[in-house]
Specification:
Elements lengths: L4 E14 L2 E14 L3 E5 L6 H8 L7 E6 L2 E2 L5 H11 E4 L11 H10 L5 H14 L15 H12 L6 E5 L7 H16 L3 E6 L10 E6 L2 E7 L14
Parallel strand pairs: 3-8, 3-9, 6-7, 7-8
Antiparallel strand pairs: 1-2, 1-4, 4-5, 9-10
Helix pairs in contact: 3-4, 3-5, 4-5, 5-6
The chain binds adenosine-5'-triphosphate and magnesium ion.
């Protein structure tokens, strides 16, 4: 693992065992994500995108190979250490939002902070701020069922930023949205990137490649090709991210 790399996958395989049959959903994947990069992982349905999201996000263990987070082999960490570091470092935006239905928008945003032992009072203040940032200042007391799809996605974005992570990992964040709301979500991700975060965007949508500094093309569980994008990062202010 070279300097400046946040997440690194080395010869990673993921094999799902279904009774007698085996399915290789990720085949010998090598990915190095550099600090501050905007990377798009592109592929059609079934290509292995969510499988790779779970591996890149250290939510799943590879069948073979190694995953390094900040230079540390994830397989050598205890689960408690891994979940603490992952919670501090990575903000997740899931395709299906994964909001807790019984909690309000603000409580959903506070949740990842509670796992990092942030006091509820302080955490809820920050949650309200984040919701304001995504344009939902007046929806903080709504439960997910009382929000539109686009609003839920924005709550998920606010939640992903709860612990000021240095990496945002988003799986089809615009997949369930109309094109205008999708563009707003992309604008938010670009802003987070310009403020210094590393953004990894997973999608089947070729139109989103224009946002990438680097695109990794996936097919049948393999990396087909890697292309550098023309996009250059406008650094607004470097917050000296961890
Ligand atoms: N838990 C599992 N057990 C067995 N097979 C699985 C499992 N999860 C995924 N697969 C298979 O692995 C392959 C890759 O799945 P994955 O969910 O990573 O695809 P994807 O690129 O995210 O697709 P989509 O765009 O439809 O979300 C698929 O063929 C899928 O059927
Ligand atoms: Mg998927």
């Amino acid at each position: 693992m070279k300097k400046g790399e946040v997440i690194s996958l080395k010869n990673v395989w993921k094999t799902y065992q279904m009774g007698e049959t085996k399915l290789d959903a990720a085949k010998n994947i090598n990915i190095d994500i550099k600090k501050g990069e905007f990377v798009v992982i592109l592929g059609p349905s079934g290509a292995g995108k969510s499988t790779i999201m779970n591996l890149v996000g250290c939510l799943d263990e590879p069948t073979k190979g190694h995953i390094y987070l900040d230079g540390k082999d994830v397989s050598l960490m205890h689960e408690s250490e891994l979940s603490r570091i992952r919670g501090q470092k990575i903000g997740f935006i899931f395709q299906q939002f994964n909001l807790i239905p019984t909690l309000t928008a603000a409580e959903n945003v506070y949740l990842p902070m509670s796992f990092q032992d942030v006091e509820r009072k302080d955490g809820m203040v920050k949650a309200e701020k984040l919701l304001k940032m995504v344009g939902l200042g007046n929806r903080s007391h709504h439960k997910p069922s009382e929000l539109s799809g686009g609003e839920r996605q924005r709550v998920a974005i606010a939640r992903s930023m709860a612990n000021s992570p240095s990496v945002i990992l988003a799986d089809e964040p615009t997949g369930n949205l109309d094109s205008k709301t999708g563009q707003e979500v992309m604008a938010m991700l670009n802003k987070i990137h310009e403020e210094g975060a590393t953004v990894i965007l997973i999608t089947h949508d070729l139109n989103l490649v224009k946002h990438a500094e680097r695109t990794i093309f996936l097919k049948d569980g393999m990396i087909e090709k890697v292309k550098n994008g023309s996009k250059k990062r406008k650094v607004m202010h470097n917050k000296n991210k961890k």
